[in-house]
Structures are given as C-alpha cells and as structure tokens.
Amino acid sequence: MSAITKRYDFVLFFDVQDGNPNGDPDAGNLPRVDAETGMGLVTDVCLKRKVRNYVQIVKESKKPFDIFVKEKAVLNVLIDQAHEQKNVKEKEKGEKTEAARQWMCSQYYDIRAFGAVMSTGKNAGQVRGPIQLTFARSVDPIVSLEHSITRMAVATEAEAEKQSGDNRTMGRKFTVPYGLYRTHGFVSAHLAAQTGFSEDDLILFWESLQKMFDHDHSAARGLMSPRALIIFEHGTALGTANAATLFERVTFKRVTDGPARKFADYQILLDGQLVKELPKIVKVS
C-alpha cells in the first residue's frame, strides 16, 4: 500500500487514577514531575512503548507488522538478518546499507512509524520516522503519594532466620491520586514516503492510541484511560496551518472545586465546544 499523502497533527488526553503513569528510575521510581511547576510528566518513549506493545499483540508479531524494539530483542541480530535477504545480497557494496534499510522499513511497523538507529551490526542506516510525540504533561500540578506495603514472605532462608519466622518484606509504592495528561503529536507525509508508512499503518496507529492502555494494566499503573483524541487532518502533505495554532484551539476547563479526582472534574473543549467523540477528526483546509 502506498504511503500517506496528508499531514496530521493531534492532541491526546489521557488520565491516571491511583497509579504511577511513568516512574523515574533515577528518582526511586517516583512519578515524573516538572520540579518548577509540579506538573506531571510522561515521556514520549513511554507512550511509544505502549503503541508498540499494542501492535505486537494485535498483529501477533507477524510481518510486515513485527516490532523491532521489543522486550529481549537483540537488535544487531535483526539488522544482520536484513543483509541475508536475497535482494540485499545482490546489491553492490555501497548499495547494501540502503537496501537493508528499505527491507527493515518494510518488515517492522515501529521503524516505519517512529524510525530507528540501525547503523550497528552490519549497518542498515538510520530512519527518521514520520510520527513524533512530545512529552505528556498534566494539565494541573500532581500530588505524588508514597505508600508502605508489606509482603507476607521473604526471599531467602537467611531473611527468615533473621526475623525469627515473622517473614515479612517491606516495600514502597508511589501513586498519583489523579492526573489528566496532554500530549501532542505530528505525522509527516514527507517522512512517511521515505519509510512507506501507509494508510493502514496510520489507522492502526489511531487505534493503538485509543486502546493501548487496555492491554497495559498493572498494579503499579492503576487505572489509565484515553479521554480525548483530536486529529487535525490537513488537505496536503505540507499542511495549511501552523501546528501550534491548531493546538491552541484545544483547551480544558475545570468544572469542580477542590482537588480533581476523576475525569468528570474536567471538560475538553475544541473551539470552546465540548469534545464528545473519540477520536474527533477536524479537517484543516
């Protein structure tokens, strides 16, 4: 299928309740936060991971929807496989890298979508993906809570002996009582032409943004849900409006006093009107 021919910009709102949406390993796995404003943060890498996981589940890792960056993958082995393909082997030495790059794009969804650095191993070059995401930022400051938890068991006999059979392990868990997060994204038709990112790929991406949290539940993450997806569809590859101007059309409103603890405490607005559809597609002419 041919690559997409239109530019897209989008806004995604999602929330978390009694969970840690994206722990920071350099801060003891505390929820990420902007130290100056208190706003919660979720990295673009975290969101892309959830998209990858959803595609891997739905497409069962079958080509051309396999995932390059996945759990326990050895990337150089996958890159080397590209050079073992007949159409790559037959190329002249200077053309092999480009041929391998094209083969990798044709087989792996996340390379077509997000790009990849594949210049290690036998070298399949680098790919700049058509889809780019910003960090997600909470619309209001978040509160990070620390909870003491107890496991009624220990890991070793030495620990059991030390506790005289009491056998308890203490731990910590961090949660955000409630946070509504907003992230922005961009889909470039020009970069899609270079990776072969197609209409079917794009449909799968929109689907993943709406369903990725349903397959990512864990005790640590609490309840996470997509709440609004506003897609600005341009009529051309270059687009007809500045992305920042389009994003300014999307706002939120607090409708209750006191700390927010549920999505009903907010409204998502497009041009001042309540957004009820998921996704909401806006044609930009």
Describe the structure in your own words:
Helix 1 packs across helix 8. Strands 1, 4, 7, 8, 9, 10, 11 and 15 form an 8-stranded mixed beta sheet that branches. The chain has a 3-stranded antiparallel beta sheet with strand order 12-13-14. The chain has one domain. Strand 5 (about 115) and strand 6 form a beta hairpin. It contains 9 helices and 15 strands. The longest helix is centred in the first third of the chain and has 16 residues, at about 45-60. By secondary structure, it is of the alpha+beta class. It has helices spanning about 45-60, 75-85, 85-90, 95-105, 110-115, 155-160, 190-195, 200-210, 245-250; strands at about 10-20, 25, 30, 40, 115, 125-130, 130-135, 135-140, 145-150, 170-185, 225-235, 250-255, 265-270, 275, 280-285.
Which helices and strands appear, and what pairs or packs with what?
Elements: E1 8-19, E2 23-24, E3 30-31, E4 39-42, H1 44-59, H2 75-83, H3 86-89, H4 96-107, H5 109-114, E5 115-117, E6 126-128, E7 131-133, E8 136-141, E9 145-151, H6 157-162, E10 169-187, H7 189-195, H8 199-211, E11 223-234, H9 243-248, E12 250-254, E13 266-270, E14 273-274, E15 280-284
Beta-strand segment tally: 15
> Class by helix and strand content?
alpha+beta
Overall outline = flat
Largest sheet: 8 strands, mixed
Q: Average pLDDT value?
A: 93
Sequence of secondary-structure elements? EEEEHHHHHEEEEEHEHHEHEEEE
How many discrete domains?
1
Beta-strand percentage range: 25-35%
Our measurement of the CA-to-CA distance between the termini, rounded to an integer number of angstroms, reads: 25 Å
* Number of helices, counting only DSSP H or I runs of 4 residues or more: 9
Which radius of gyration do the C-alpha atoms yield? 22 Å
> What is the helical fraction, as a range of percent?
25-40%
Poorly predicted segments: none
